[in-house]
Write a structure and sequence with these properties.
The chain is an alpha+beta fold and 91 residues long. It has two domains: 42 residues, no CATH class; 37 residues, no CATH class. Helix content is 23%, strand content 30%. The strands form two sheets. A three-stranded antiparallel β-sheet has the order 1-2-3. Strands 4-5 form a two-stranded parallel ribbon. The chain is elongated and about 55 Å long.
């Protein structure tokens, strides 16, 4: 059986040999066959090229942009200088 998901999901399925280190700026999907860890897929968002300019115009209009995300906390927000972040991740 192949299992894919978060570290906690794999631990629930008795996969215990999961490497801890990974790039914290990416979301990681772990993959196991039976109870043996076999790999991971790391995903990241790409910030649009016009995002910084768009956010500057929002700020110039007196508004404060807030990023609502279910992804890795802070990664996209930091890259476009958003200080207000609401995490909506499901654990």
């Amino acid at each position: 059986m192949v299992t894919a998901g978060s570290q906690s999901w794999l631990l629930e399925h008795e996969v215990f040999d999961i490497p801890i280190a990974h790039d914290v700026t990416r979301s990681r999907v772990l993959i196991a066959r039976n109870t043996c860890f076999i790999g991971a897929v790391e995903l990241s968002d790409t910030v649009r090229s016009d995002a910084v300019e768009l956010l500057a115009s929002i700020r110039a209009g007196g508004m404060t942009p807030i990023l609502v995300s279910g992804d890795t906390p802070g990664c996209v927000a930091e890259s476009v200088s958003i200080n207000s972040l609401r995490i909506a991740a499901h654990k």
